[in-house]
């Protein structure tokens, strides 16, 4: 079970980084504020998911 979470951890971190980069690109190009807000919400949600996945990996690795 822990190998499953070890597989998900980098995917979750890459997803967070991808949304962050998309948000930065949108801001640098002067994109719409609504898109920036949407990307910010997705980043926060993905950060929470990444944190849960990492904590689950740590929990199951100790068992």
From TrEMBL:
The record, for Pfam families, names: HIG_1_N (PF04588)
Q: Which residues form the HIG1 domain?
A: 1-63
What sections of the protein cross the membrane? 6-28, 40-60
Q: Which UniProt keywords apply?
A: Membrane, Transmembrane, Transmembrane helix
Instruction: Fetch the InterPro entries from UniProt.
Output: Hypoxia_induced_domain (IPR007667)
Spell out the protein name for this chain.
Uncharacterized BrkB/YihY/UPF0761 family membrane protein
């Amino acid at each position: 079970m822990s190998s499953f979470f070890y597989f998900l951890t980098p995917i979750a971190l890459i997803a967070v980084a991808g949304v962050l980069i998309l948000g930065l690109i949108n801001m640098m190009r002067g994109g719409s504020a609504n898109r920036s807000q949407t990307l910010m919400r997705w980043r926060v949600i993905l950060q929470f998911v990444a944190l849960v996945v990492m904590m689950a990996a740590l929990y199951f690795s100790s068992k």
